[in-house]
Amino acid sequence: MAQAVQKLVAKVPTLVGAAVSYSKPRLSTFWYYARVELVPPSPAEIPKAISGFQDLIKGFQSGRLGQTSVRDALRNGLVATEVLMWFYIGEIIGKRGIVGYDV
Amino acid sequence: MVPPVQVSPLIKTARWSALLFGLIYGKQRYDYLKPIAAEERRIEEEEKKLREERERIYKQLSEANSDTILK
């Protein structure tokens, strides 16, 4: 038993090294995309976001949104769902538990 | 590699504000539910004590009354 534990402990540095060398390129690709796509909006972009939202409302009122193709509608629906899921991720962080409230 | 896509600012603000709202909502709901759960636990403790007391008394009485020669 003690020998098995010793062998495991001796293997840990190699395991850690292997994990690091496996994840480094993947992390770098993730970072490459995340630095452009997942960053929070800079203060200069917020007025653009507000005008984009107003465009959306105007499009809804004028009936232009009824003209979108099914393909575009599905794509936009997927994007909207993804945006909504961020709310639930924020809730998970706020309640400090993955499933349910730990009261 | 495919170059990264330029996400529209509307989507970016919507995502991060949804994250913020979720954080605030989760924290507030947790703070609301915590004292309620503590209260329920306290009430459960008290009722449990009362119930066990009554069961003890009942058991003692039933043992005292069950005098048979078959014991």
TrEMBL record, chain A:
Q: Which InterPro entries match?
A: ATP5MG_metazoa, ATP_synth_F0_gsu_mt
Cross-referenced Pfam families, in alphabetical order? ATP-synt_G
Q: Keyword check for Membrane, yes or no.
A: yes
Tell me where it mainly resides: mitochondrion
Lineage, top-rank taxon, reads: Eukaryota
Q: Which family does it belong to?
A: Belongs to the ATPase g subunit family.
Cellular location(s): Mitochondrion membrane
Protein's UniProt keywords contain Transcription: no
Q: Which GO terms describe its cellular component?
A: mitochondrial membrane; proton-transporting ATP synthase complex
GO: which molecular function terms?
proton transmembrane transporter activity
Q: What is the protein's name according to its record?
A: ATP synthase subunit g
Q: Which GO terms describe its biological process?
A: proton motive force-driven ATP synthesis
Instruction: Write the record's keywords in alphabetical order, separated by commas.
Output: ATP synthesis, CF(0), Hydrogen ion transport, Ion transport, Membrane, Mitochondrion, Transport
From TrEMBL, chain B:
One of the entry's Gene Ontology molecular-function terms is: proton transmembrane transporter activity
Q: What is its main location?
A: mitochondrion
- State what protein this is by name: ATP synthase F(0) complex subunit e, mitochondrial
What are the protein's UniProt keywords? Acetylation, ATP synthesis, CF(0), Coiled coil, Hydrogen ion transport, Ion transport, Membrane, Mitochondrion, Mitochondrion inner membrane, Transport
- Give its localization: Mitochondrion inner membrane
Q: Which InterPro entries match?
A: ATP_synth_F0_esu_mt
- Pfam families given in the database record: ATP-synt_E
